[in-house]
Amino acid sequence: MNPSIDTVFNVDSESMGREECFKKVLKSSSFRYLWNMGEKLVVDYVIRNIDLIVNYGFDKMLSSKVISDICVSIMKSRSTPPFQRIIKESNFLALVEKYPMSNPNLSIQIECLYLSVLPFIIIDESNNFRSVFKSEAFIKRILLFQSTGDVFSFFSLLLTDPNRSTINFLKGSGFLKVLRTYMMSSNDLVSDISLSLFVKTLSTSLYSDAAMVLLEDDCLNKLVKSVLLDPRTQAFEFLRYTFQTANREYFFSKWKKIIPIIEIKNSDFCKIVLNSGVYTSCVDACMGLVISLYEHNHVYSIDIETITIHLAELFFKYRTNSFLHTTFMRLIQTLQKSKSITNDLVQKMQIVDPMINLFKERESNFSFSSWGQMRQIAKIINPYISSENRVIWDTVVICNIDKTDQIIKKNYGGRTLLLPKRLQSSWIVQILRILMILLFIFLIYTLVPGNE
Fold this sequence. Notes:
Elements: H1 13-16, H2 18-27, H3 31-36, H4 40-48, H5 50-58, H6 65-75, H7 81-89, H8 92-102, H9 108-122, H10 136-143, H11 148-159, H12 164-172, H13 175-183, H14 188-201, H15 207-215, H16 219-229, H17 233-248, H18 253-256, H19 258-263, H20 266-274, H21 281-297, H22 302-317, H23 322-337, H24 343-349, H25 352-360, H26 371-381, H27 387-409, H28 421-447
């Protein structure tokens, strides 16, 4: 038996007041069912009280969690017929858009709830709902939310939406220009989230406008100078991704102008790494940028040599810093590709003796966490080992590496009886063909007259 509409509106609205009556109606056991069924009187009631739906939905302090959850579920019911009526017959979209604008001191809890509802409205294939939110002021307000993780997730969701109209919505909202403004913010959290989102746009169709936005008002040059004065991890990551994109899109004039702005400060980036007392995530990000610059120009300078020697020293000093070890390995691999490794450089790095000592205690040393990286580095520098160290190097290091390679290549478990996948699939195809031919012969024999 279906619930009756009378059970929902069986309240004394005159004595209770509008808001108390609203809570009583939503708490009715039949309300959700009748709403989902699109009952006209229930939908009409929601439309008349759409302001309470928005306020009670986002702010759980105004009511119970039950009421808030019901209101949120209504705001998320985009695919239902009742929702279409709400859009057409109420100012729901305007209320949602104005909510953060008129409440400058939202709690993190409300911000998270707001950002959980917003995708159900903005990500819309019909593109009917977005125009209300299409303003720089709205984008700016969202970027200033305290819940930076949710802000990043929200905009990442929009940027990765396969519907092209969502990207067009961001483009029309001046998204890139807003990010450019906040990248230079004195608030590190706001700046970092803006830098991260700008990097995210480089893998979307917005990248075609990104170069122009960065060049306007000398933005990129100001950012580079700011990073040199106040080094930050996310800023170096941003410069690295931007440089890599510019390098990839080199033949487009706007991106071509990006490269020298970053490249000219390479020596300053090297100094940041060299002057750091501890190898932090910020130093690692700066080093990633330095390597990317070197991969582009292959200019072996005194800065590159000094920084290579410096990292070689840190490699053995910080035995558990896998980020440092991986970055040093990448630097050595880059030097190998550019044919910049020499006997002289290997000697200056002073890594041969420490490597020999570590490989000697390979079976008992559990404090060194990057044997894989050191193994790759040892293979690269092997041709440049001096004659005086060659015998012990081959005996200890190369012998150890050869044993490891044999273990890696060894086929454990005995002979494999299964056929290779390609051979298996070909046998299946042949069997199916034979079965089809037999079936065809059978049908001809049974259907042709005279074969009975």
